[in-house]
Write a structure and sequence with these properties.
With 387 residues, the chain is α/β, with parallel strands linked by helices. The protein contains 13 helices and 16 strands. It has a seven-stranded parallel β-sheet with strand order 8-7-6-9-10-11-12, with helices on both faces. Strand 7 (160-164), helix 7 and strand 8 (181-183) form a beta-alpha-beta unit.
Length: 387
């Protein structure tokens, strides 16, 4: 019997995927798995028995990844599960920035009691007219799950689309429309594009990447859209550029005191993935990731350990070892198992940065004594008997 806890509300369509071998608990100390959305985990004391954390979403800034790795806790996210919801909001953001739709709506509300509103609106509509996005140039920085969907959708709206991602995955490249121009230098996007949307993870290398220097290279009246992370953009520099008429609009999904209520800013309260469909998709993916790990030892979409998949176990036993990425570890495991007259029938070893994961299929169920010997090996973080 496995136990899991939810630090945020998780869609029932996901929780319903747990079998009868799972029980929900309110006590973190009892849980082998945690499902989380935005709850801050950095100050939580993570119990020794915790095996996995699944973030029902893409960003993992609220989770202490290194601490989890040191404790042998695998952290998952759900890339792509909410991509369509974010894509649709990005497209809406471009339309709102092109034509003053919100200004027009507010004008109608203000004049709702005017009996001549129909005639008056014909005179006032030019103030909210704006321009079309068809024929304009869109630069997409980051061609992950969301960036690819945005780029492809924009081509169907008649936009000329430039995509930049030096680390584009094979899967993303296959899914990217041939109409999208793949750019090798992000500065080409700054110089050429009327709209720029950013879809990269928040890392030390990307923090504040849209800054005063980048803005200075952009076209006048550019529209910048940020539905990834607020810290990717130096928002003080953006506000200065709006005041100088360099930036036409800044569209962002991250409300904060710097941008809230400011001229030239279209601000939404973190609505990107907040659709019923996105929340359902994220919940289902998170539960499937947890089940596959706890039941089979497979890792898919981890952010602190390498992905590793050996399918379902049809051997007598399976052992999962989370360890430091050090030389000679496999030999030490083989020695312990060999001394116990246990044969390794199949094995996978993967590494990711300072951490590694080894999955072993064996011909004999492992004993507690053998598990204890594996745990005593220097560099081993956790040993888990899957079967």
């Amino acid at each position: 019997m496995f136990q899991y806890t939810c630090l945020n509300p998780i869609a029932n369509v996901g929780l319903d995927l747990f079998s009868d071998n799972y029980r929900q608990t309110e006590n973190l100390e009892e849980a082998q798995a945690v499902l989380v959305r935005s709850a801050a985990m950095h100050d939580l004391k993570l119990p020794e028995g915790l095996e996995a954390v699944a973030r029902a979403g893409a960003g993992v800034n609220n989770i202490p990844l290194d601490q989890c790795a040191e404790q042998g806790i695998v952290v998952f996210n759900t890339p792509g599960a909410n991509a369509n919801g974010v894509k649709e909001l990005v497209i809406a953001g471009m339309l709102l920035a092109s034509r003053d739709i919100t200004g027009g709506i507010e004008w109608v509300k203000e004049n709702k009691d005017n009996p001549d509103i129909a005639k008056l609106s014909e005179k006032q509509k030019k103030n909210f007219a704006g321009c079309e996005i068809s024929g304009k140039k869109l630069g997409v920085i980051g061609l992950g799950a969301i960036g690819v969907l945005v780029a492809n959708a924009a081509t169907h709206l008649g936009m000329e689309v430039f995509g930049y991602d030096p680390y584009i995955s094979v899967n993303a490249a296959w899914n990217l429309s041939r109409s999208v121009k793949h750019i090798s230098n992000v500065e080409d996007i700054y110089r050429e594009c009327d709209f720029i949307t950013i879809h990269v993870p928040l890392l030390d290398a990307t923090k504040g990447m849209i800054n005063a220097d980048a803005i200075a290279k952009m076209k006048d009246n550019v529209v910048i859209l940020n539905f990834a992370r607020d810290l990717l953009v130096d928002e003080s520099a953006v506000l200065e550029a709006i005041a100088d008429k360099k930036i036409k609009k800044y569209v962002t999904d991250f409300a904060n005191p710097t941008t809230a209520g400011k001229d030239g800013v279209i601000l939404t309260p973190h609505l990107g993935a907040s659709t019923e469909e996105s929340e359902d998709n994220c919940a289902m993916m998170a539960v499937r990731e947890i089940r596959d790990y706890l039941e089979n030892g497979n890792i898919v979409h981890s952010v602190n350990f390498p992905d590793c998949n050996m399918g379902g176990c049809d051997k007598a036993g399976r052992v999962a070892i989370l360890h430091k990425n050090k030389k000679g570890m496999i030999g030490k495991y083989s020695t312990v198992l060999g001394n116990a007259d246990i044969n390794i029938e199949d094995m996978t070893n993967k590494s990711k940065g300072n951490f590694a994961y080894t999955l072993l299929d064996i011909d004999t169920p492992v004993t507690k004594e053998v598990v204890d010997q594996l745990r005593e090996i220097e560099g081993v973080l956790k040993v888990r008997v899957v079967k």
